[in-house]
Protein backbone atom coordinates (compact mmCIF):
# COMPACT_ATOMS: atom_id res chain seq x y z
CA UNK A 1 0.00 0.00 0.00
CA UNK A 2 1.20 3.49 -0.87
CA UNK A 3 -0.19 6.70 0.61
CA UNK A 4 0.49 10.15 -0.82
CA UNK A 5 -0.33 13.38 0.99
CA UNK A 6 -1.81 15.49 -1.80
CA UNK A 7 -2.82 18.06 0.81
CA UNK A 8 -1.77 18.18 4.46
CA UNK A 9 -2.95 21.65 5.47
CA UNK A 10 -5.75 23.27 7.40
CA UNK A 11 -8.67 25.31 6.09
CA UNK A 12 -6.66 28.52 5.91
CA UNK A 13 -3.54 27.59 3.97
CA UNK A 14 -1.19 27.61 6.97
CA UNK A 15 2.32 26.99 5.72
CA UNK A 16 1.14 27.31 2.12
CA UNK A 17 -0.29 23.78 2.21
CA UNK A 18 -3.22 22.40 0.25
CA UNK A 19 -6.42 21.33 2.01
CA UNK A 20 -6.61 17.79 3.38
CA UNK A 21 -6.47 15.05 0.76
CA UNK A 22 -4.67 11.71 0.82
CA UNK A 23 -4.35 9.23 -2.03
CA UNK A 24 -4.14 5.53 -1.15
CA UNK A 25 -3.04 3.02 -3.78
CA UNK A 26 -3.32 -0.74 -3.26
CA UNK A 27 -3.03 -3.78 -5.49
CA UNK A 28 -6.74 -3.56 -6.31
CA UNK A 29 -7.95 0.02 -5.90
CA UNK A 30 -7.15 3.71 -5.60
CA UNK A 31 -9.07 5.93 -3.21
CA UNK A 32 -8.95 9.33 -1.56
CA UNK A 33 -9.28 10.08 2.13
CA UNK A 34 -10.93 13.50 2.22
CA UNK A 35 -11.15 15.84 -0.75
CA UNK A 36 -10.68 19.44 0.37
CA UNK A 37 -11.42 22.40 -1.87
CA UNK A 38 -7.93 22.48 -3.42
CA UNK A 39 -7.67 18.74 -4.04
CA UNK A 40 -8.21 18.68 -7.81
CA UNK A 41 -5.40 21.23 -8.19
CA UNK A 42 -3.13 19.13 -6.00
CA UNK A 43 -3.95 15.98 -7.97
CA UNK A 44 -3.18 17.57 -11.31
CA UNK A 45 0.01 19.19 -10.02
CA UNK A 46 1.14 15.75 -8.81
CA UNK A 47 0.19 14.05 -12.07
CA UNK A 48 -2.60 11.93 -10.56
CA UNK A 49 -5.33 11.01 -13.03
CA UNK A 50 -8.69 11.74 -11.35
CA UNK A 51 -10.41 9.02 -13.35
CA UNK A 52 -8.20 6.44 -11.64
CA UNK A 53 -9.87 7.17 -8.28
CA UNK A 54 -12.54 4.59 -7.48
CA UNK A 55 -13.71 5.80 -4.07
CA UNK A 56 -13.60 9.02 -2.01
CA UNK A 57 -13.94 8.75 1.77
CA UNK A 58 -15.03 11.89 3.63
CA UNK A 59 -14.42 12.36 7.36
CA UNK A 60 -16.70 15.37 7.85
CA UNK A 61 -18.54 18.05 5.94
CA UNK A 62 -16.31 21.10 6.13
CA UNK A 63 -15.06 22.69 2.92
CA UNK A 64 -11.40 21.87 3.54
CA UNK A 65 -12.34 18.18 3.74
CA UNK A 66 -15.12 17.70 1.17
CA UNK A 67 -15.24 20.99 -0.79
CA UNK A 68 -13.25 19.56 -3.71
CA UNK A 69 -16.02 17.15 -4.64
CA UNK A 70 -18.01 19.53 -6.90
CA UNK A 71 -14.84 20.31 -8.89
CA UNK A 72 -13.88 16.62 -9.03
CA UNK A 73 -17.33 15.56 -10.30
CA UNK A 74 -17.66 18.35 -12.87
CA UNK A 75 -14.13 17.80 -14.17
CA UNK A 76 -15.00 14.11 -14.56
CA UNK A 77 -18.17 14.99 -16.43
CA UNK A 78 -16.96 17.63 -18.84
CA UNK A 79 -13.17 17.33 -19.19
CA UNK A 80 -11.88 13.95 -18.01
CA UNK A 81 -14.80 12.12 -19.70
CA UNK A 82 -15.16 9.64 -16.86
CA UNK A 83 -17.24 6.56 -17.61
CA UNK A 84 -16.65 4.32 -14.57
CA UNK A 85 -18.67 4.67 -11.33
CA UNK A 86 -17.45 6.86 -8.47
CA UNK A 87 -18.27 5.96 -4.86
CA UNK A 88 -18.40 8.77 -2.31
CA UNK A 89 -18.74 7.64 1.31
CA UNK A 90 -19.20 10.06 4.18
CA UNK A 91 -21.34 11.05 7.15
CA UNK A 92 -25.13 11.19 7.23
CA UNK A 93 -26.19 14.27 5.28
CA UNK A 94 -23.49 13.71 2.66
CA UNK A 95 -25.90 13.61 -0.27
CA UNK A 96 -27.77 16.77 0.76
CA UNK A 97 -24.61 18.76 1.55
CA UNK A 98 -22.91 17.77 -1.71
CA UNK A 99 -25.98 18.83 -3.69
CA UNK A 100 -26.05 22.16 -1.85
CA UNK A 101 -22.34 22.74 -2.47
CA UNK A 102 -22.68 22.04 -6.19
CA UNK A 103 -25.60 24.45 -6.45
CA UNK A 104 -23.74 27.20 -4.58
CA UNK A 105 -20.58 26.84 -6.67
CA UNK A 106 -22.17 26.03 -10.05
CA UNK A 107 -25.96 26.60 -10.12
CA UNK A 108 -27.78 23.85 -11.95
CA UNK A 109 -24.84 21.45 -11.81
CA UNK A 110 -26.46 19.05 -9.35
CA UNK A 111 -29.24 18.42 -11.87
CA UNK A 112 -26.89 17.66 -14.74
CA UNK A 113 -26.97 13.98 -15.56
CA UNK A 114 -23.49 12.51 -15.36
CA UNK A 115 -22.19 10.03 -17.90
CA UNK A 116 -20.98 7.95 -14.97
CA UNK A 117 -22.69 6.77 -11.80
CA UNK A 118 -22.04 8.65 -8.55
CA UNK A 119 -22.80 6.30 -5.68
CA UNK A 120 -23.34 8.16 -2.40
CA UNK A 121 -22.91 6.02 0.73
CA UNK A 122 -23.85 7.58 4.07
CA UNK A 123 -21.88 5.82 6.78
CA UNK A 124 -23.26 4.89 10.19
CA UNK A 125 -21.16 5.39 13.34
CA UNK A 126 -19.52 2.17 14.50
CA UNK A 127 -20.76 0.11 11.55
CA UNK A 128 -18.20 -1.33 9.15
CA UNK A 129 -19.00 -0.71 5.49
CA UNK A 130 -17.67 -2.70 2.55
CA UNK A 131 -16.60 -0.56 -0.41
CA UNK A 132 -14.66 -1.41 -3.58
CA UNK A 133 -11.34 -2.89 -2.44
CA UNK A 134 -11.62 -1.71 1.18
CA UNK A 135 -13.68 -1.64 4.34
CA UNK A 136 -14.19 1.44 6.49
CA UNK A 137 -15.42 1.83 10.05
CA UNK A 138 -16.42 5.35 11.13
CA UNK A 139 -16.10 6.49 14.75
CA UNK A 140 -18.04 9.49 16.01
CA UNK A 141 -15.73 12.29 17.17
CA UNK A 142 -16.24 15.85 18.43
CA UNK A 143 -16.12 18.61 15.81
CA UNK A 144 -18.82 21.16 14.97
CA UNK A 145 -19.67 20.82 11.28
CA UNK A 146 -23.45 20.48 11.04
CA UNK A 147 -23.35 16.70 10.56
CA UNK A 148 -21.78 13.78 12.44
CA UNK A 149 -17.96 14.03 12.18
CA UNK A 150 -15.94 10.83 11.90
CA UNK A 151 -12.56 9.34 12.52
CA UNK A 152 -12.05 6.56 9.98
CA UNK A 153 -10.46 3.14 10.33
CA UNK A 154 -9.75 1.71 6.90
CA UNK A 155 -8.75 -1.86 6.04
CA UNK A 156 -7.26 -2.50 2.60
CA UNK A 157 -4.59 -4.72 1.12
CA UNK A 158 -4.02 -6.39 4.49
CA UNK A 159 -3.15 -3.07 6.15
CA UNK A 160 -4.98 -0.75 8.53
CA UNK A 161 -4.88 3.01 8.07
CA UNK A 162 -6.65 5.13 10.69
CA UNK A 163 -7.39 8.83 10.39
CA UNK A 164 -8.60 11.12 13.14
CA UNK A 165 -10.41 13.65 10.98
CA UNK A 166 -10.85 16.91 12.89
CA UNK A 167 -11.70 16.60 16.56
CA UNK A 168 -10.81 17.62 20.06
CA UNK A 169 -9.58 14.73 22.17
CA UNK A 170 -12.16 11.96 22.51
CA UNK A 171 -11.69 8.36 23.59
CA UNK A 172 -13.16 7.30 20.24
CA UNK A 173 -9.68 7.92 18.81
CA UNK A 174 -8.38 5.03 20.90
CA UNK A 175 -10.68 2.56 19.17
CA UNK A 176 -10.22 4.17 15.77
CA UNK A 177 -6.43 4.11 15.91
CA UNK A 178 -5.57 1.17 18.16
CA UNK A 179 -2.67 -0.84 16.73
CA UNK A 180 -3.09 0.60 13.23
CA UNK A 181 -0.27 0.14 10.75
CA UNK A 182 -0.57 3.89 10.16
CA UNK A 183 -2.40 6.44 12.29
CA UNK A 184 -2.77 9.84 10.61
CA UNK A 185 -3.77 12.30 13.30
CA UNK A 186 -4.63 15.97 13.44
CA UNK A 187 -2.28 18.14 15.51
CA UNK A 188 -3.72 21.59 14.95
CA UNK A 189 -2.07 23.13 18.00
CA UNK A 190 1.13 22.31 19.89
CA UNK A 191 -0.12 22.37 23.48
CA UNK A 192 -3.10 24.73 23.45
CA UNK A 193 -6.41 23.01 24.14
CA UNK A 194 -9.43 24.37 22.24
CA UNK A 195 -12.84 23.01 21.39
CA UNK A 196 -13.22 20.86 18.29
CA UNK A 197 -9.49 20.57 17.40
CA UNK A 198 -6.67 18.42 18.74
CA UNK A 199 -3.37 19.60 20.20
CA UNK A 200 -0.23 17.46 20.23
CA UNK A 201 0.11 17.49 24.03
CA UNK A 202 -3.34 15.95 24.46
CA UNK A 203 -2.61 13.32 21.84
CA UNK A 204 0.70 12.39 23.47
CA UNK A 205 -1.00 11.76 26.81
CA UNK A 206 -3.03 8.99 25.15
CA UNK A 207 -0.57 7.45 22.68
CA UNK A 208 0.17 4.60 25.08
CA UNK A 209 -3.50 3.61 24.75
CA UNK A 210 -3.57 3.81 20.96
CA UNK A 211 -0.14 2.27 20.25
CA UNK A 212 -0.14 2.72 16.48
CA UNK A 213 2.71 1.09 14.59
CA UNK A 214 3.35 4.41 12.84
CA UNK A 215 2.07 7.89 13.61
CA UNK A 216 2.04 10.84 11.22
CA UNK A 217 0.76 14.27 12.29
CA UNK A 218 -1.23 16.36 9.83
CA UNK A 219 -3.68 19.30 9.57
CA UNK A 220 -1.21 21.47 11.46
CA UNK A 221 -2.11 25.11 12.04
CA UNK A 222 0.27 28.04 12.28
CA UNK A 223 0.82 27.47 16.01
CA UNK A 224 1.93 23.89 15.39
CA UNK A 225 4.11 24.68 12.40
CA UNK A 226 6.31 27.09 14.36
CA UNK A 227 6.98 24.32 16.89
CA UNK A 228 8.04 21.62 14.40
CA UNK A 229 11.63 21.62 15.68
CA UNK A 230 10.29 20.47 19.06
CA UNK A 231 8.14 17.67 17.63
CA UNK A 232 9.47 14.13 18.04
CA UNK A 233 6.94 12.54 15.68
CA UNK A 234 6.75 12.17 11.92
CA UNK A 235 4.83 14.97 10.22
CA UNK A 236 2.99 15.23 6.93
CA UNK A 237 3.73 17.63 4.10
CA UNK A 238 2.28 18.03 0.64
CA UNK A 239 3.73 15.44 -1.72
CA UNK A 240 5.05 13.13 0.99
CA UNK A 241 4.78 9.44 0.08
CA UNK A 242 4.53 6.61 2.60
CA UNK A 243 4.83 2.87 2.08
CA UNK A 244 2.53 1.13 4.53
**Kindly, what is the distance between the CA atoms of the first and last residues, rounded to a whole number of angstroms?**
5 Å
Spans of 5+ residues with little confidence (pLDDT < 50)? none
> Tally of extended strands?
14
Main sheet: strand order: 6-5-4-3-2-1-14
Count of discrete domains? 1
- Per DSSP, the total helix count is 7
Give the SSE string.
Answer: EEEHEHHEHEEEEEHEHEHEE
- The overall average pLDDT, rounded, is 97
Here the CATH topology equals: Metallo-beta-lactamase, Chain A
Largest beta-sheet details: 7 strands, mixed
Give me the CATH architecture, please. Answer: 4-Layer Sandwich
CATH class: Alpha Beta
Find the CATH superfamily: Ribonuclease Z/Hydroxyacylglutathione hydrolase-like
Rg, rounded, reads 17 Å
SS-derived structural category: alpha/beta
- Taken from the alpha-carbon principal axes, the silhouette is globular
Kindly describe this structure.
It is a single chain. The chain is an alpha/beta fold and 244 residues long. The chain has a single domain (2-236), classed as Ribonuclease Z/Hydroxyacylglutathione hydrolase-like (Metallo-beta-lactamase, Chain A, 4-Layer Sandwich), CATH 3.60.15.10. 23% of the residues lie in helices and 27% in strands. It is built from seven helices and 14 strands. It has helices at 39-46, 63-66, 69-78, 94-105, 172-177, 200-210, 222-225, and strands at residues 2-7, 21-25, 30-35, 55-57, 86-90, 118-122, 129-131, 134-140, 150-156, 159-163, 182-186, 215-218, 234-235, 241-243. The strands form two sheets. It has a seven-stranded mixed beta sheet. The termini are close together.
Amino acid sequence: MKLTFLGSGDAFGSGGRFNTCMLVETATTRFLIDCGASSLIAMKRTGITPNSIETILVSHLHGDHFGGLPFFILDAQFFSKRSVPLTVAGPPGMRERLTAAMEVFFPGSSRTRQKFEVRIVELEPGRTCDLPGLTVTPYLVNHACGAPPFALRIEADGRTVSYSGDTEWTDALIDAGRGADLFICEAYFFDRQVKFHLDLASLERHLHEIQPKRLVLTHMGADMLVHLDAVAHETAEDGKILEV
